From TrEMBL:
<dbReference type="GO" id="GO:0005737">
    <property type="term" value="C:cytoplasm"/>
</dbReference>
<keyword id="KW-0736">Signalosome</keyword>
<dbReference type="InterPro" id="IPR050756">
    <property type="entry name" value="CSN3"/>
</dbReference>
<dbReference type="GO" id="GO:0006511">
    <property type="term" value="P:ubiquitin-dependent protein catabolic process"/>
</dbReference>
<dbReference type="InterPro" id="IPR036390">
    <property type="entry name" value="WH_DNA-bd_sf"/>
</dbReference>
<dbReference type="InterPro" id="IPR000717">
    <property type="entry name" value="PCI_dom"/>
</dbReference>
<feature type="compositionally biased region" description="Basic and acidic residues">
    <location>
        <begin position="443"/>
        <end position="462"/>
    </location>
</feature>
<keyword id="KW-0963">Cytoplasm</keyword>
<dbReference type="GO" id="GO:0008180">
    <property type="term" value="C:COP9 signalosome"/>
</dbReference>
<feature type="domain" description="PCI">
    <location>
        <begin position="327"/>
        <end position="394"/>
    </location>
</feature>
<feature type="region of interest" description="Disordered">
    <location>
        <begin position="1"/>
        <end position="24"/>
    </location>
</feature>
<dbReference type="InterPro" id="IPR055089">
    <property type="entry name" value="COP9_N"/>
</dbReference>
<feature type="domain" description="COP9 signalosome complex subunit 3 N-terminal helical repeats">
    <location>
        <begin position="92"/>
        <end position="282"/>
    </location>
</feature>
<protein>
    <recommendedName>
        <fullName>COP9 signalosome complex subunit 3</fullName>
    </recommendedName>
</protein>
<comment type="similarity">
    <text>Belongs to the CSN3 family.</text>
</comment>
<keyword id="KW-0539">Nucleus</keyword>
<feature type="region of interest" description="Disordered">
    <location>
        <begin position="443"/>
        <end position="483"/>
    </location>
</feature>
Length: 483
């Protein structure tokens, strides 16, 4: 019996051929800004759009700054763009992104009109055209934010940048738009909006992505998570930012490391788990440049509360924490001491009177009750306070089927699936180089003294392990993943 449907391994029709851009040497530069604008306006077919993308890539390459002649073309001096209606923006998205990125930093009489047009591009832009120039879109996002800050109209850009982030997201690949959006959220104290955006999981980066955008994202994302009270997530993000490979310990990496130490104290009360394979340059910087943070963390981990107080009250520590803008986190750490004492007592007692708990915690009764209620509200412990006199009862069994736990499990499953897909892709890529695998296998065999190696299996004959869905090695620690 014949089946009309295509089988699982056969597509219903072959994929459409992609339009190949012209080679750079075959691209003819426009003779004038008017000619260039006409080419942008006429790019309505896939071939013309591909030609325009190739031209723009020559005028403003992602790896270098545009030359002065190219800047003159991209600025389109003498051409008014303010009359472009919203309906035409999707067809002109690619050209407008390049043009406005050059125009926005310039102080001109039309600065307000350029910002208005840029905000309309963020909202009405074509996602397919955004995908043709992801690095330029990131520059465009930063240009929009800086122009709004100069005009003291930052509140206007948070909504459009959120639209731009949604429109430019591409297959879990990171670009700098998210970093610009998080900086906007921090500057406007829109913490909840920024925290919601952290649900986007990135497993790769777009080629030619600016390393500063990546560092800025992890620093700002960790700061947003800390401001939202999710100190475990903040620690993970900040450690990732601090351990991104680099030749020098930049200021933003050091800021990530310092805040990671403080957030880990608020999360677990322990020292931050920096990976063992951290670069020597960064390790030396952490050892030498963060003495107040290390003293505070060491005393807090050992529950030496008097030393904790001394570590944050001396003049050097006070000035250091204030200069690093970490005074708020330090204050929260000092305020969490009753909480840590309660958690330590919970390991020993399952039930005791509130008066006994107050005497052991050495804090006012209202502060102890408030700390217990806050931990119960956050889901950190399960406890009840009832009776006369009041009795505190700690419940050991966790509600594993609660909506909060189910949401965490779903998020972990999504992340694990993304990592699993990356590992499978890497496995397929490595199978293409049989000589490399043979060489590695020979080294392993010779080291273990197992005798001669077996012939390398052909592609497709490799057996998949039973635990293929599990994460092994460095990938099991998300803070230890590079890009």
């Amino acid at each position: 019996m014949a089946h009309s449907e295509a089988g699982p391994s056969n597509a219903a029709h072959p994929a459409f051929p992609s339009v190949a851009p012209r080679a750079p040497q075959n691209i003819q530069l426009p003779s004038s800004p008017a000619h260039f604008w006409k080419q942008v306006m006429d790019a309505r077919t896939p071939q013309l759009l591909a030609d325009l993308a190739a031209l723009l890539n020559v005028l403003a390459p992602p790896t270098d700054s545009p030359r002065e002649a190219a800047r003159d073309l991209l600025l389109l001096d003498g051409i008014d763009l303010t009359g472009i209606p919203d309906a035409q923006i999707p067809a002109l998205t690619l050209g407008l992104v390049y043009i406005l990125t050059e125009r926005l930093p310039r102080r001109t009489r039309a600065a307000t009109e350029n910002l208005d047009l840029a905000l309309r591009v963020c909202v009405n832009g074509n996602p397919k055209q955004f995908a043709l120039a992801p690095t330029r879109v990131a520059e465009f996002a930063w240009a929009v934010l800086r122009a709004a800050q100069k005009a003291k109209e930052t509140t206007r850009v948070i909504g459009p940048l959120q639209h731009l982030l949604r429109l430019s997201s591409n297959n879990s690949q990171f670009n700098g738009v998210h970093a610009a959006f998080l900086e906007t959220c921090l500057s406007l104290r829109a913490i909840d909006l920024g925290y919601q955006s952290l649900s986007i999981q990135y497993s790769n980066v777009i080629p030619y992505t600016n390393i500063l955008d990546v560092l800025t994202y992890y620093h700002h994302a960790g700061t947003v998570a800390a401001a939202s009270g999710d100190f475990a997530r903040a620690t993970e993000l900040l450690i990732f930012g601090a351990t991104i490979p680099g030749e020098t310990p930049s200021a933003i990496r050091m800021a990530c490391a310092k805040r990671a130490i403080l957030c880990e104290l608020l999360s677990t009360g322990l020292l931050a788990p920096f990976p063992r394979d951290l670069s020597q340059v960064m390790t030396r910087s952490i050892e030498k440049g963060m003495d107040p943070y290390k003293k505070l963390a060491a005393a807090f981990e050992k529950r030496l509360w008097d030393q904790v107080t001394d570590a944050v009250s001396n003049d050097n520590a006070v000035s250091t924490f204030a200069r690093d803008c970490n005074g708020g986190l330090v204050s929260q750490i000092m305020g969490s001491i009753p909480k840590r004492r309660i958690l330590d007592l919970r390991k020993t007692y399952s039930r005791l009177s509130l008066d006994d708990l107050v005497s052991k915690v050495q804090a006012p009764a209202e502060a102890v009750k408030a700390a217990i209620q806050d931990m119960v509200f956050r889901g950190e412990i399960r406890a009840t306070i009832d009776g006369t006199p009041e009795i505190v009862t700690f419940v050991d069994d966790d509600d594993y089927a609660s909506p909060k736990q189910m949401a965490k499990l779903m998020q972990a499953n999504i992340l694990a699936q993304n990592v699993n897909n990356d590992l499978l892709y890497a496995n397929r890529a490595m199978l293409l180089n049989r000589k490399l695998l043979q060489k590695r296998m020979d080294k392993i065999e010779n080291k273990d003294k197992r005798g001669p190696t077996e012939p390398l299996k052909s592609r497709g004959e490799f057996e998949m392990p039973d635990d293929v869905g599990q994460v092994r090695g460095a990938g099991s620690n998300y803070a230890d993943m590079g890009f």
